[in-house]
Structures are given as structure tokens and as C-alpha cells.
Amino acid sequence: MYSQLGGTFPAPLFLFLAGISFALVTEKLRKKNLPAAQIGRATIRRGAEIFAFGLLFRLQEYLISWGWAPLSDLLRVDILNTIGLSMMLMGVMCWVVLSMHRGTRTRMALVLSSAGAALLISLLTPLLWTSWRPRWLPWPLESYINGVHNLGAPQAWLFPIFPWTAFAFAGLAAGFVLRCEWARRRESAIFGFGGAAGVVLVEAGHWLDAQPHQVYAFYDFWHTSPNFFLMRVGMLLVILAASYAWCRWGAGPWGFSPLIQLGRASLLVYWAHIEFVYGRLSILPKHSQSIKMASAGLLVIFLAMLALAFLRTRWKGRGAEVLAWFRRRPAPAH
Known about the structure:
Blueprint: H1 2-6, H2 10-31, H3 36-64, H4 79-100, H5 106-128, H6 139-146, H7 161-179, H8 181-185, H9 187-209, H10 226-249, H11 258-264, H12 266-277, H13 291-315, H14 319-327
């Protein structure tokens, strides 16, 4: 079971980290004493940019697969689309909360609102995938609710708002907690507590799943269950605590950290790796690899993306200089 859990983690991790980053940006804007409306517009605009990148990515994938990909692939709900939508929804929520609350209790209101939104999305997911399906919507819109696409039923391989946006709101709550002064003064203890809380959530989700009676008439643990959501949020908190320990006491302070390097160019790494892992340029034939070969392929793609991230951060802001170097003519021979 836990090995299967590990295989479901890339998308929740992306969304969870997007939520944490969103909280950091929002706190930075709050410290500038900007009005709630300005903070909301700035963050929603950034979410719209990511959503546009998601649409552009779908167009790129369609063109690369020209000839066999159906036209409906342009409207597929992919992870970048959902990250962008999640950021816009988080921006709206922060705008509302900041407009209603001022003073010392504002951060607590943000934390509780974020956690409440994550829980609500998780609890509504089983219903919106079954008995409460908004069938009256055109499928391109319904697909953003439950991933129905044009196939008549919700598809587990897509990334609709329900349940995926819940991970972004969970990250948002965690980010606001980490940015408060009390937590920053007790940084190590807070991350340790977060890891312990993650273990509790994992075990709580496992215990709830094992109960003989479930709340929902249609119970699908692996795709819509709030219990599964609890377990994955718990594991995300454990990963967050382990990452902190790695960067604080492990190899992170040695001068070069792959974890930090990949994080600095995460959008580019995501954009580039998809085609080499899943697309026509896949470095290994699909559905025919042993564990040994799959592990070797994972190592190769990891090192390649690490090199790409390193070059991206090293050349960032130096485009004119790099272009001039390529255009430089060799000195004439004497």
C-alpha cells in the first residue's frame, strides 16, 4: 500500500509547494502594507499566467503528437492548468480574508480559512464525482470540476479542482504557519512537530479507511476518498520535515544542493522532462522495463534535469552575454 502511495506523489507535491510559495509571496506583499485588493490582483494575475502556461503546454504537446492526438487533448485538464486555477482560487480567498480581518489575528484567519478550504474540497470530491456531478455543464467546464473530459465519466488520470486543489490549500495553510514570527523563532521544533503531525494524519487516514462503514454511498479510496487525502497530506508534511532536515543538517549546506537547485527552476524542469519521460522522445521504451532499467532511467533523467536547472540559474539574466559569446568570430590566423 505504501509503495502505491509513493507513486501518487508528484502532483500533490507540486500543488502543496505551490501553496507554500503562494503564502510566502502573500506575506511579503502584506509586509509592504499593500491593500487587500492589490494583493489579491497581483496573486490572481500570477495564477492566470501559470494557467496560460498550462494551455500553451497542451498546445505544444498536441503539435508534437500531430497526426494521432485527438483535438480534445487541447482541453485536457493537466497539472499546470490546475496549479494556475488553484493560485487564482487562493488569491480570491486571501483577498476576502484580508478584506475582513486586520491586526494580529489576520494570519490565524488565513491559516484556518486555508485549512478549511482544503478539507471542504476533499469532502465534496466523492459527491462531485458521483451523485452531485454537474452534468449540465459542457464537458470542457465539467472536466475542471471532476475530470470527466469527453469520456462520460470522471477520469483518474486528470487533475480537476476536486480533489487536487485541496493540496494547494493545505500547502497554503502550512506556509502561513511557517511565516509567523512565533514559528520562525522555533523553526526546528515546528518542522519536527509538522513531521509528527504528518505521521498522525497518515495513521488516522488508514484507520478511517479500515472502518466497516463509510459516509459516502460510493467509496473510492484511491481516487476520491478524504481518507486518502489525509494520508497524502500527512506524508507531504513528513517530506517537508525531512527536506528541512536535509537542508539544515544534511548535505544541503555543503555548497550545492540538488533539491534547492531543482526548486529554483521547477517550471522549466517540469516542462522539459514530460516529453522525455512520457512523450515521443521517451528515453526508455514504455511498459517494458525491469526495475533495474527503470531505476537507471530515473537516474539519467534526474541528472539531466539537474544539469538543465543548473544552466538555467547560471545563465539567468545573462542572455545577451551568452548570445554574444556564440556570435563571436574566431580571431583570424596569422
